[in-house]
Each structure stands twice: as C-alpha cells, then as structure tokens.
Amino acid sequence: MQLVEPALDRLDSYAAALRQGWSPSNTRDVSGEQLAQIAADAAGFIAQFTTPGGIVTLADGTVVPRLPGPVRWMWDGAFCGSISLRYQPGTEELPSTALGHIGYAVVPWKRRNGYATQALRQILPHARAVGLGWVELTTDADNAPSQRVILANGGVLMARVADGVQPGQDRLVWRIVLPG
Ligand SMILES: CC(C)(COP(=O)(O)OP(=O)(O)OC[C@H]1O[C@@H](n2cnc3c(N)ncnc32)[C@H](O)[C@@H]1OP(=O)(O)O)[C@@H](O)C(=O)NCCC(=O)NCCS
Predict the structure, then answer these.
(1) Distance of CA 150 from the midpoint of ligand 1 (Å)
(2) Which CATH number does 2-177 carry?
C-alpha cells in the first residue's frame, strides 16, 4: 500500500468505493454528494484536494474554510482509503471545528491489512515537514481499531472528553510527538 495524490486516472476506483456506501468523512456520510460532484465536474472534484483553499461542511451543516494540508489516497492497485492532514501554518493549535490534525478511513473490504497503520506512519513526515512538533488525533472512546492505529504510531492518550456532537459519547484525545 502506498499513499498517492488524488488524481483523475484513479477517480473511477474512488467513485466505486463511494457507490458501495463508503464515506471519507467519519462524521457525515458524504458518499452521495461526492458522487454528484464527480458526475458534474470530475476535474473540479480532484482539484479541491490538490489546490489550497475551498470549504468544508461540518456534521452540523456549518460551512468553514478548509485548512491547508494534503489529502492522500491509500492505493494497493485500487483505492483502499483516504487520509488527510490539516493544520494552521506556524502553530500546532487547531480551530475548535477541527477534530484533530489527521483523519483517515479505510474501505470496509480492505480493513485489517495494516493499511491505516501504514498510512498514518507515512503521513507523519509530511506533518513534521510543515513544521508541526506534534499532531493531535481524536477517536471515539469505543473505536478500538483506530486507537490501535495511533498506539502503533507512538500515540499517547492525553484526555477523555465528552463528544459535543453525540450526547453520552466520549472522545479520546491522542498526541503523537514528531521527532525533530
Ligand atoms: C479505524 C480504521 C481506519 C482501521 O483501518 P485498518 O486498515 O483496518 O487498520 P489496521 O489494519 O492498520 O489495524 C489496526 C489495528 O486494529 C486492529 N483492528 C482492525 N479492525 C479491527 C476490528 N474490527 N476489531 C478489532 N481490532 C481491529 C488490527 O488488528 C490492528 O491491531 P494490531 O496493530 O494489534 O494488529 C478502519 O476500521 C476504518 O476506516 N473505520 C471507519 C473510520 C474510522 O473509524 N476512522 C478513524 C476515525 S478516528
């Protein structure tokens, strides 16, 4: 598995995952709206990942500016998941609307192959290269697979906090210190 840039010649494989109900967002099912965007303007769809700027719609419908940071696709000859880094230049601080510096999701039929663990390992040097000394990630308290991915990459549990969106749910806040 390697991380690749989103590209038009890989879009069919990405769209096939969306058609099977996979969503790159862990907080909102965006499969339908992304398929509509691809049908309307495939090149524009790819450009939103490869050019800075743009907007993101949050789980509660709020529209906020997209933070800088690469989106990469996990690729093993076909699309198998995505991982994104987001940050504010010059600081580790994140706006309250961002759930962490890094988010990832693997398509269900490619899980348990070590792909998320490898993808996180491969994107950490990008985070270091843009000047981050550490990255913060959050997981649902019951998301053991994602917690194992973070632990395997040197993550340390920093806090357990109430989930602002899902009442009664807790979220775990993790930190990975990046070697200098
Ligand atoms: C979390 C997720 C990204 C893990 O992807 P993955 O490629 O299957 O992860 P890996 O294969 O690298 O496995 C990581 C660890 O979790 C374990 N694991 C994976 N799926 C598991 C499951 N369903 N039950 C128990 N353990 C599981 C693996 O055995 C591995 O443990 P190990 O390191 O001790 O061997 C994937 O399940 C997913 O996309 N889930 C939905 C989206 C999501 O939760 N994203 C993260 C939000 S914080």
Answers:
(1) 10
(2) 3.40.630.30
Query: What are the contacts of 56-59 at 24+ separation with CB within 8 A?
Result: 57/28, 58/27, 58/28, 58/97, 59/27, 59/28, 59/165
In whole angstroms, how far apart are CA 16 and each of 10, 43, 162, 180? Answer: 10, 17, 35, 39
Closest-CA residue, ligand 1 atom 10, reads 114
Instruction: Give the three-class secondary structure for 124.
Output: helix
Which residue's CA lies nearest to atom 31 of ligand 1?
148
> 58: part of which helix (H) or strand (E)?
none
pTM over 0.90: yes
What length does the chain have? 180
pLDDT tens-digit map of 12-55: 999 999 999 999 988 889 999 999 999 999 999 999 888 877 77
Nearest atom in ligand 1 to 139's CA: 48
Ligand 1 binding site (Cβ under 6 Å of any ligand atom): 26, 104-106, 111-117, 139, 143-146, 148-149, 152
User: For the segment 161-177, what is each residue's pLDDT rounded down to a tens digit?
Assistant: 998 777 888 999 999 99
Q: Which atom of ligand 1 is nearest to the CA of 112?
A: 11
